[in-house]
Amino acid sequence: MYLVSPLDLVPDFLPVIGYADDVIILAITLRSVIRSAGPASLRRHWPGTPAGLAIIERLAGLAPTREPGQTHGG
User: Fold this and answer.
1) Would you give the distance in Å from CA 26 to the centre of its chain?
2) Quick one: pLDDT band at residue 61, thresholds 50, 70, 90?
3) Rounded distance between C-alpha atoms, residue 18 and residue 54, angstroms
4) DSSP string covering the chain, please?
5) pLDDT at 51 (0 to 100)
């Protein structure tokens, strides 16, 4: 799989670790895009569940969305 360029840091034919560099680059890129777009944009366009949104927000380093009536600590 050539995510960014035809040159791979770790060849994909190596089991498990072959795709690790691709996954890391993808995760860093997605986190950067989400943080640049901002939490309001992410929440406005999120098609999934509130639980899924909370996971994405946590992974992107954003403050989690609070449901109405939800208190700190769950």
Assistant:
1) 8
2) confident
3) 30
4) --SS-S--SS-TTSTTTTTHHHHHHHHHHHHHHHHHH-HHHHHHH--S-HHHHHHHHHHHTPPPP--TTPPTT-
5) 93
The pTM of the full predicted model, rounded to 2 decimals, is 0.62
Structure tokens of 40? 């309001």
Q: Apex CA 12: angle with CA 10 and CA 13, to 5°?
A: 115
Euclidean distance between CA atoms 70 and 67, whole angstroms: 5
Higher pLDDT, 41 or 8: 41
Burial of 70 (0-12, 13-18, 19+ CB in 10 A): exposed
pLDDT of residue 63: 77
